[in-house]
Write a structure and sequence with these properties.
With 557 residues, this protein is an alpha/beta fold. The chain has 24 helices and 14 strands. Among the domains are: 161 residues, Malic enzyme, N-terminal domain (Rossmann fold), CATH 3.40.50.10380; 184 residues, Rossmann fold (3-Layer(aba) Sandwich). Helices cover 43% and strands 10% of the residues.
Length: 557
């Protein structure tokens, strides 16, 4: 069965609506709050349980946005929005869509980073599932306790590598919750079918283990055979309990992220957003930047600061794109260079390198510093995925500007505090010639009377549409070709007006259409490659549009 257009809680496959009274008001998917009409209040046993005046959704949105704006601190705004989501999800998503530029940074990056750090102290109401090592042998039983039948989209983390903040253990739950909120807001995945999960295998963060507010297991992180057996049981349980689900692996550490992706990607529909989503959004930025710089993709030389999941994922997708343009794979790989914590990744270091770095260990003299690597490698694009702030210095950016008429500078580390440089620095240090993008948002910059609008290379542009396309086509697998199609589609949606102000990604105000177009491209790959478990519809765009949840109230009587 295709991803449903409505949810059982709202329209249980033709069954009459049953909820009444106070139970209706405490169900966030059904509650309309003060928007229940007089007729509904009488018919559903709500008379006297609400203030007498009936408000429209538009009036509720205005009240909510005013409340958010009265709150001075971003974390407190996040708490308000979380409470709204737990009280009235339809209104929450209406607010996010109507004020997407203002609200997305509050429910996700950069604010979600601080929210994760404080998750134990701001915890109000459980959302999603915490599955711990104590539940070994019972994971399927635990999953069956989820109150919504037929979960279609699971975002799961073990909390080891939360943004650029490191091992936060169970506090990382803010990430799956936030990602799934973006799936609904940006791509219309019905919230009924979404399930955030934290696999709590402990933490190696001593401050958390010793802290009074830590909400997770107070033991060291499990690794090796114990960890692998736990994940295997989890995957088996998902296959049995939620056989139609798409799984997104999120914020696993480098030692596990690549292994888990490669082990399970053909067994159940799954992908790793840190590897593949980041790769697609960065490649889209590079493709869009070429419309400003000229030249071809195969002529680009990339230098990455950081050689983890994100960096090697971007490089791998760049290689795929270059090969699609006729370049040999070995030649495409030689266009990608990495600087890790020790210096340039080269062949002489092979014995000490992790497996995912080996394809990019080129035959070159070792270089210890980023500045010297830029000087000798002469990249056209500098891409920061290190999680180390202020590493794109004035000297480094200035050197990039000396080597390139329009240097491409991507400071992609999240949250904002981890960015390799700011937008203002990139423009100022390059004589206003840099093409800049960042992982977290930066405000527009005025330089010499000219406004530059930095692009946000955020995975929000990619993963919601990919997930929607996979679910709509019922694809058996999430392939690299789908992410290549997503990147190419995203780049094609950058308009001349965006490029005129230096922005190489579409405005977030267009995010629902962007997600729809990406979902269509992904679904086409599934149909054309024989991966779809349903017949190809006559009009893929309209078929997918019909699946998208719209945050509007329904009439109950």
């Amino acid at each position: 069965m295709m991803y449903p257009r409505t949810a059982p809680a709202l329209s249980p496959w033709g069954a009459p609506f049953q909820q009444r009274g106070a139970s209706l008001l405490i169900d966030p998917l059904l509650n309309k709050g003060t928007a229940f009409t007089d007729r509904e209040r009488d018919a559903l046993g709500l008379r006297g349980l609400l203030p007498p005046r009936v408000f429209t959704m538009e009036e509720q949105v205005q009240r909510s946005v005013a409340a958010v704006r009265r709150i001075p601190e971003p974390l407190e705004k996040y708490i308000y929005l979380t409470n709204l989501q737990n009280r009235n999800e339809v209104l929450f998503y209406r607010l996010i869509l109507d004020y997407v530029d203002e609200m997305v940074p509050l429910i996700y990056t950069p604010t979600v980073g601080q929210a994760c750090l404080e998750y134990g102290s701001i915890f109000r109401r459980s959302r999603g599932m915490f599955i711990t090592l104590k539940e070994r042998g019972r994971i399927a039983e635990i999953l069956r306790q989820w109150p919504h039948e037929g979960a279609r989209l699971i975002v799961v983390t073990d909390g080891e590598r939360i943004l650029g903040l490191g091992d936060l253990g169970a506090l990382g739950m803010g990430i799956p919750i936030g990602k799934l909120s973006l799936y609904t807001a940006c791509a219309g995945l019905h919230p009924y079918y979404t399930l955030p999960i934290t696999l709590d295998v402990g933490t190696d963060n001593k401050a958390l283990l010793d802290g009074p507010m830590y909400i997770g297991l107070r033991e060291r992180r499990a690794r090796g055979a114990v960890f692998d057996a736990f994940i295997e049981e989890f995957v088996t349980a998902v296959e049995n309990v939620f056989p139609q689900a798409l799984v997104q692996w999120e914020d696993f550490g480098n030692t596990n992220a690549f292994r888990l992706l490669n082990r399970y990607r053909k067994r159940l529909p799954s992908f790793n957003d840190d590897i593949q989503g980041t790769a697609a959004v960065a490649l889209a930025g590079l493709l869009a930047a070429l419309r400003l710089t000229g030249g071809t993709l195969r002529e680009q030389r990339l230098l990455f600061l950081g050689a983890g999941e994100a960096g090697t994922g971007i490089a791998d997708l760049f290689v795929s794109a270059a090969c699609a343009q006729g370049m040999a794979e070995a030649d495409a790989r030689r266009q990608c260079w990495f600087v890790d914590s020790k210096g340039l990744v080269v062949k002489s270091r092979v014995a000490e390198l992790a497996e995912h770095k080996l394809p990019y260990a080129h035959d070159h003299a070792f270089i210890p510093t980023l500045h010297d690597a830029v000087q000798q490698i002469r990249p056209t694009a500098l891409i920061g995925v290190s999680g180390t702030p202020a590493t794109f210095t004035r000297e480094v950016v200035g050197l990039m500007a000396a080597l390139n008429r329009q240097p491409v500078i991507f400071a992609l580390s999240n949250p904002t505090s981890k960015a390799e440089c700011t937008a203002e620095q990139a423009y100022a240090w390059s004589e206003n010639r840099a093409i800049f993008a960042s992982g977290s948002p930066f405000p527009p910059v005025q330089i010499n009377g000219q406004q530059r609008v930095p692009g946000q290379g955020n995975n929000i542009y990619i993963f919601p549409g990919v997930g929607l396309g996979v679910l709509a086509s019922e694809s058996r697998e999430v392939t690299d070709s789908m992410f290549l199609a997503a990147a190419q589609t995203l780049a094609s949606l950058v308009e001349p007006a965006d490029l005129a102000v230096g922005r190489i990604f579409p405005s977030l105000t267009r995010i629902r259409d962007v997600s729809l177009q990406i979902a269509t491209a992904v679904a086409k790959v599934a149909y054309e490659n024989g991966l779809a478990r349903r017949s190809r519809p006559g009009d893929i765009v309209e078929d997918i549009r019909g699946c998208m949840f719209q945050p509007v109230y329904r009439d109950y009587v």
